[in-house]
Design goal:
Strand order of the largest sheet of chain B: 3-4-5-6
Strand content of chain A: 5-15%
Number of strands of chain A: 8
Distance between the termini of chain B: 33 Å
Largest interface: A-B, 54 and 61 residues
Shape of chain B: globular
Structural class of chain B: alpha/beta
Largest sheet of chain A: 5 strands, mixed
Helix content of chain A: 40-55%
Order of helices and strands of chain B: HEEEHEHEHEHHEHEHHHEHHHEHH
Order of helices and strands of chain A: EHEEHHHEEHEEEHHH
Number of helices of chain B: 15
Oligomer: heterodimer
Shape of chain A: elongated
CATH class of the largest domain in chain B: Alpha Beta
Number of helices of chain A: 8
Strand content of chain B: 5-15%
Radius of gyration of chain A: 22 Å
Bound molecules: iron/sulfur cluster
CATH architecture of the largest domain in chain B: Alpha-Beta Barrel
Distance between the termini of chain A: 53 Å
Largest sheet of chain B: 4 strands, parallel
CATH topology of the largest domain in chain B: TIM Barrel
Number of domains of chain B: 2
Structural class of chain A: alpha/beta
């Protein structure tokens, strides 16, 4: 491996698998792999933009569902080296197959599994923390700002739970929306959307207030434990959890 | 009375029930709203650190009984309220659609009679399932003394149907809840156990005991739990530190609820259900209460030090589980990994296994983590207690890991 060869891919999951599949077949160890949409050119890098293999199918990788799921979760993470981590995970997966999940003594395997777990944990937490507001025409609207890119995973969850509802979830940080029309959800970039600030009406306020009343009542004074509350519900999520909004704005523990 | 005021009164009356879980059901969304998540989802955490997953309310806080420990008892002069079935349904739906909650937890004080109260509960839940097409999680409390045909109907509508045993002994119950007897409660438990199926209380049943309102020892409590698990196939026994809400000469005066004790009971309960321990391993007539300073498993290990240290690369699954600090996941991971390589202390850390406590009780490739002359009770005990006290705050957090 030359110490400056950077391989670019189009940013998609299929794109990175396509590239890594190629690298594995020709046995090239990349110095780095970068998403071409966010890649910052540097003078010493030698950029290699391999041509996409148009016929590539995921099954060409010849890995199990579990392995695929793991690398998909890593792909969704905010780790800046995720592409290389996926590469090394797949490199080892060729050798160890499903045994790879127990090769915890290998640093790159361990790393990948930890990241995948981290993403899956955030997804699970947000399944609970997402807060919808009803806007016009009974559409439900929620904002999130997750560390990892879990919008798609969340959409799958709400697709079965709120099957007959129209809903929109916005990832504020990544400026993209998931829009569900009772049949399918569509992930749309914010640049292509012209959504005005969401406004909620009096009736919605009433329901939010009911929830706040419940929330404040259900805690037992004699067992007060703010630290524990904060531990389970990290501050970074407070902004979009209506019962924590006040605490968020005051910038204290509530 | 406004809906908001009712909600305040009826959530306040329900909040002492420790049960919060929403797991164990796989109800799917068949053309309406909602489904159940098998592993359960927490939607929020209250100011006391407890998970909020269900809209936990009473249908009414009116009650014909006078249980001494209960805020809703007849003799208390408090504001009383009753929800109409529609109010419960719309509130549940409104909260559920906005993803505030995972479902409904409905309990009630007893009005007129057990059967009459049950009928109202059934009417409400039927409405929620059939008119509002709600397929989310529902946990309903059965009213002790209700007739079988009502238990039958209610169980077919909900994910979990349960009744609280409240106190570990009949004596305690007689003293504080003279209108109740444990037979009425265990009758419900047997009924649910016998009828449980995919369409009848699929998430099973749980119960609750109040800790510290009567004189029973931890041994009494754990013996009761062991018996309940065995006889009725319960999913969970919840332990609820007694919180003084009433003044009564029959009730103890406590400065603060016995939270540390409650925590020890949860830990021991865990050991009974998943770690192969028996009550007799942990407590006996001479030591009928848990050590507040050391958790039950470490306490057991210190008293059985001759069985340690366990070698990580060869100990059986159940032997690994006996090691303080090693849980089910860790034990399974160790067994799967050691087939592929010899595990060292370093590897354990990499594998995400916390060895802070475990290290005193194990060897890796026959090496102890420090000079093996340190492997003695006094040294280990002192260190465990020290670490726990430094981590005092961490421990508080663990408290609510369990309910
Ligand atoms: S029956 Fe239930 S609600 Fe009524 S006083 Fe006893 S514990 Fe309270």
């Amino acid at each position: 491996m030359k110490n400056n060869q950077v391989y670019l891919y189009d940013g998609s999951f299929l794109g990175i698998l396509n590239l890594i599949n190629k690298l594995l077949t020709v046995q090239i160890k990349p110095f780095n792999i970068c998403n071409k949409n966010i890649y910052q050119p540097s003078l010493i890098d030698e950029i290699i933009d391999l041509e996409q293999d148009d016929d590539f199918k995921i099954k060409d990788l010849n890995v199990s569902k579990e392995i695929l799921k793991t690398i998909y979760y890593v792909y969704l993470s905010n780790n800046e080296h995720k592409e290389l981590i996926i590469y090394y995970f797949l490199l080892n997966a060729q050798k160890y197959k499903n045994k790879i999940f127990y090769m915890r003594n290998l640093k790159c395997v361990n790393h990948a599994l930890k990241i995948a777990k981290y993403v899956s944990n955030e997804n699970h937490k947000l399944k609970g923390f997402v807060r919808f507001k009803e806007i016009k025409n009974h559409v439900l609207y929620a904002s999130i700002s997750p560390t990892n890119d879990v919008l798609e995973l969340l959409s799958l969850h709400f697709m079965s739970r709120l099957k007959n509802e129209y809903w929109i979830i916005k990832d504020i940080g990544r400026n993209k929306y998931s829009i569900y029309d009772t049949k399918k959800y569509y992930i749309v970039s914010g640049e292509n959307m012209n959504l005005k600030e969401v406004e909620i009406d009096e009736e919605e306020k009433t329901i939010e207030n009911l929830w706040l009343t419940f929330f404040r009542t259900i805690g037992i004074e004699g067992r007060k434990n703010k630290k524990c509350q904060m531990n389970f519900m990290p501050k970074k999520y407070w902004k979009y959890i209506i019962e924590m909004e006040d605490a968020y704005e005051k910038g204290n523990n509530g | 009375m406004t809906l908001e005021e009712k909600l305040r009164i009826l959530a306040d009356g329900a909040k002492y029930d420790a049960s919060c879980s929403s797991s164990g059901s796989t109800r799917t969304n068949s053309g309406g709203i909602g489904n159940a998540a098998y592993s359960g989802i927490c939607h929020s955490f209250a100011s006391d650190g407890r998970c909020i997953s269900l809209l936990k309310i009473l249908m009414t806080n009116c009650c014909i009984f006078d249980c001494k420990y209960c805020i809703n008892r007849k003799s208390n002069h408090i504001k009383r309220a009753i929800f109409t079935p529609d109010e419960i349904c719309t509130t549940t739906m409104n909260f559920y659609r906005r993803n505030y909650i995972e479902g409904l937890f409905l309990s009630s004080g007893i009005i007129k009679s057990a059967d009459y109260t049950m009928e109202l509960l059934i009417k409400t839940i039927k409405l929620l399932r059939y008119k509002y097409h709600f397929h989310g999680y529902i946990h309903c409390k059965a009213i002790p003394g209700a007739s079988d045909y009502l238990l039958k109907e209610l169980g077919g509508l909900v994910d979990r149907l349960s009744a609280n045993i409240e106190l570990p002994t009949e004596k305690g119950l007689k003293l504080l809840a003279p209108n109740k007897n444990s037979n009425k409660v265990t009758k419900i438990m047997s009924y649910v156990k016998e009828n449980r199926s995919e369409s009848y209380a699929p998430a099973g049943q749980s119960t609750q005991m109040i800790i510290g309102a009567t004189k029973e020892t931890d041994l009494d409590i754990m013996n009761k739990s062991e018996k309940l698990y065995k006889s009725y196939d319960l999913k969970r026994v919840f332990y609820s530190a007694y919180i003084p809400v009433n003044k009564d000469k029959l009730l103890p005066t406590l400065e603060s609820p016995p939270l540390a004790r409650e925590n020890r009971l949860y830990q021991a309960d865990w050991l009974l259900r998943f770690y192969g321990f028996k009550v007799n391993d942990l407590l006996d007539e001479r030591n009928p209460n848990f050590n507040i300073l050391i958790d039950p498993k470490a306490n057991w290990a210190l008293r059985h030090l001759d069985e340690f240290p366990k070698e990580i690369n060869s100990a059986s699954y159940y032997d690994l589980l006996k090691v303080p600090g090693i849980g089910i996941k860790s034990a399974k991971r160790i067994i799967a990994c050691r087939k592929n390589f010899k595990i060292t202390f370093e590897d354990l850390k990499k594998m995400g296994i916390v060895i802070k406590r475990a290290k005193y009780f194990i060897t890796c490739n026959h090496k102890y983590f420090i000079n093996s002359t340190y492997f003695q009770k006094g040294f280990i005990e002192a260190n465990l207690i020290l670490e726990d006290n430094i981590k005092e705050n961490k421990k508080k957090e663990q408290l609510s890991l369990f309910p």
